[in-house]
Every structure is written in C-alpha cells, then in structure tokens.
Amino acid sequence: MRKYILICIAAIFYYSGLVGIARWWTRRCGRFLIILNYHRATGGDLRRHLLYLRKYYHILHIEEAIDELYKLHQDESDVSDWRTPLVLTFDDGYRDNYTHGYALAIELQVPITVYLVPGYIDSGKSFWWLDSQRMLRNARVREVRFEEEVYKLDQPSRRAALSHLIDRRIRHATSVAEREAFLLSVRDALALPSSFSDEEDVFTLPLTWQQIQEMQESGWVSFGAHTMNHPVLAYLSDAAELQREIVECQTLLTQRLGHPVRTFAYPIGQAQHIGGAVKKVVQCGGYAYALTTMHGFNAPDSDRYLLKRIEVDVDQHWLVVAAASAGLWGFFSRLRWVPFIRKHFSNAAI
Fold it and tell me: What's the whole-model pTM score?
C-alpha cells in the first residue's frame, strides 16, 4: 500500500508539471550537483530510471562532476549542456552491478560509479547485512538461545526478533573481528556449516576483480572506495583499525585499478555513522572528496568531505525517482502537513 501511495503522489507531482518546475528552478538558482545513491541493479526497472534521467540531466562520472562543481572560475560560454549535472552511484559492489548495471550503462551510454569493498571482493562472501536473514533461512535447528532468550524459529515473530538482534549486534560491532566472531557464533548456534549457500547467493555476491577490470576498461564505469570490510566507522574503538579501513582501501584499489582513487563513500553514511574523527582520517588519507547518505543537493560551497546524496532504489517506480531527483521528496518531507512522506521516504542506506 505504501508503495502505491508514493507512486500516486509522484504521479501527481509529475503530471501536474511540478517535477518540471523543480528541475527548471534548480537550474535557475545556480550550480548544483545531484548524486543518486543506488545499491542493487536488479529487482526493478533500472532501464526506465536511466532513460528518464539521461533525458533530463547531464549524467557524469563522480570525479568529473565534483571537479566541475568546485571550479572557482567557470566561463558560461563553455557550458554546452544546460541540464543539471547528476551522478549515479552504486554502493557496495553487488554482482548485479556487472550483470545488469554495467550492461545498461553500455547500452544506454550512461556513466555510473561503483563504491567497492575489497575485503568482500577477495573473500567472495555475501555482505554482513544479508547474513541474519540468510542464516535463518538455512537454520538446521528449531529453536536457539541468545542473550538468555529462547527464539522458536517456526514462529515468524520470534524469527523477526532474532533477525533484528543479530543485525543490531553486527551493525554496532566495535571491530571487524568482533563482528565476524559473533557471526561465527550464530552459525554454530544455528547448526550451519562454516560455508553454505542458498538460492539467493547468486544475486547477493560481490563483484570479482575480473569483472571490475572489464567495467573500468569500458570507460562507462568508474570506482571509488567504501572501506576494506564495511564496518560502521563511528563504532570502531581502535583508531588504528579505523585508519586501516579507510587508507588501506584506497591503497589497494589504486594498485588494482592502476590509478589514484580520489573519492570515498562512508558506509551507511548518516551523520551519526561518521563523526569528526572519521572525517579527519578520510581527509588526511589522500581522498579528494567523500560522500554521505545525508539527503540533499550539492553546491559550490558544500563540504567536500560531507557531500550529500539522494537515496533511491531500483524497485521504485520511475515517477518516484523523478520526484526524488528533482528534490521534491526532500522539500515536502520538511513540511509538517505531509507526515506520510516524512515518515515513509527516509534513508535506508548500507
């Protein structure tokens, strides 16, 4: 129901002309850069999104777009495309960024930028935020005890509660070692082997280095850093581990890709997941720019290490993405008389 209500609201915005007015107003008010934040490339109609976006926006690779935004002097006579610049970013580096996102980028000649987690590329394992549901799907016991509570896995409410507990514990881990040790204890409690597969693995695995190399050589896909192992950086207790996650990621990607990696995307990326210490390490670690998931457009006076993005998802209707890229959800969510949008169109980044 929520999904269809959002589509109806977006349709009103679009067919009333409000989306077009918002696009015009953005161009009229000065130089802005819009950065959209996807994750997966399958499970919806990415093609329709890209067809709309390439018609109304000037789509660029991330570094080209940001460098252009921060030009101190821009000769307006040199501007050949008056559409607002827009960047398509895909966080985490799912396998379907290659099988679907890359294929569409070539077919439609639309540049995209993917933020990589080298630790997962090397291991080939599925990402930690998928593990709670993945393990519970394959559990070989009917009940399990955690934190002095018994969870009966044949009861949907108890399965959901256990999934929430597992996710909370791994999300708030103070080190990658703590996170992995807890996941191992969960696997043991659910009587799972150390490695197992299920029917959804093919859709959730990370990219391979071979796929990344092919994507880069095409010229339509660029890459940025997203930490070595995707911890929530603000929760790490060891300053040396924080340094490794950020700086070693850049070093390894630079070696693998054959050129400096200048942009970084904070995992999850809201203000509470970053903090001053994290930002300082990124700033001193050799990156030129860093992206959050905080909502909004970017202007020439935006903080280069706190660039904003607009959360979108491949399963959203193209009308919803049209309203989002025009900034309408953010505008109306700030008005008290639209509580539904404020409540339901919120960030859900990983």
Answer: 0.92
